[in-house]
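Hi Y.,

Following your request, here is the sequence exactly as I used it, all 414 residues.
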Amino acid sequence: MIQLNEKINALGLDIPLSEHVEILREPLRLGAFKLRNRLAIQPMEGCDGTAAGRPGELTRRRYLRFAQSGAGLLWFEAVAIVPEGRANPRQLLVNQEHLDSLKYLVNEIKEISLKECGFVPAIIMQATHSGRYSKPEGIAAYENPERPPCKIITDDEIKLLEEAYGEATRLAILAGFDGIDVKACHGYLCSELLSAFTRPGEYGGSFENRAKLLINGVKAAQANAKPGFTVTSRLNIYDGYTPPNSFGLEENMDEPLRLIDVLHNNLGMDLLNVTMGNPYQNPHVNRPFDHGPYQPPEHPLVGVERMYRLTGQMQQAFPGLAIMASGPSYLRQYGINLVAGAIEQNFCKIVGFGRQAFAYPQFARDALQSGRLEPGQCCIACGKCSQLMRAGSTAGCVVRDSLYREIYERDVKQ
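Below is the corresponding structure, written out as tokens. Let me know if you'd prefer a different format.
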């Protein structure tokens, strides 16, 4: 870690790192349930469901590997709440017809986790509408000259989505999930509405209007929840776009702080998953990389520093809220030192790994048992999992998983 610290210092950055990785073993109480440790798996889509929207064989393969990880929290991938809101033809879809298939998978995850790890992780379902990234027709929150033209969703259509979050919650409970995430990140509909400064009507312009879908979606979810079921959100606190089409500015976090105040203090949300950027437009912001589709405008460690500096502002402003941070995978085997330092210095309460979980599904078990990660199993931030998604294929780690190496050779390199 000496070389890493030297590079951080040379760049003039302040990134929290700690050797005291035993802090990762500490439990965390979240409402009615307790997480066994401070490590989580972020919602990583494999684009591997069936055409109808049920989990496919590769979906099951991925989650049974995650079930053996040892992470205290498994944040299940984005599941569309309406058919027209799917981001790809194989994205999962939550409805009554698919309930049994989701329930079967959740039960399998819990059984495998209990057998292999000795406990059952909390499992949260991410509920989404993909907005302008929906297929086959994009459905945008507002006209944006920096994005391709899309159909603009009407106020009446948005109102129906508020109700859809309530129905998704009812189904998530029946499927055995422990919580639901009203997804508001990465440029999808709920996230894009937060920057709808130029949209007319009751879902644009003022802060209250722009936040209405998220807030009302959370209220609808809470109205359909049962005791012990968590309603949360994965929230972009910084889009990284050109104003005025951006929610959250690096130098001014007033609006994200205001929104979190509503979610936590007014609506009682006790867990929030914080992220930034847009994987379609500026992936270097939330997934710093060494090799990717373009030359990033900053060193990847600058992106890591921003993620934790701004996340830390949120955590320190709301000490009673459990904030889950993102983006540690770039540091490879030192990601757990970043997690430990961030928790130790009160930048967050828990941290989720995304790309690392693709590459190294048992990362949490190794971190918790031996206090280290194997360098030869870690994500190397090569971006090939994202290349698979952009090629319309199924996503996984090309470097560490031979199955996805074959898929990459077939679908991308041809």
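The mean pLDDT is 96.

Thanks again,
Q.
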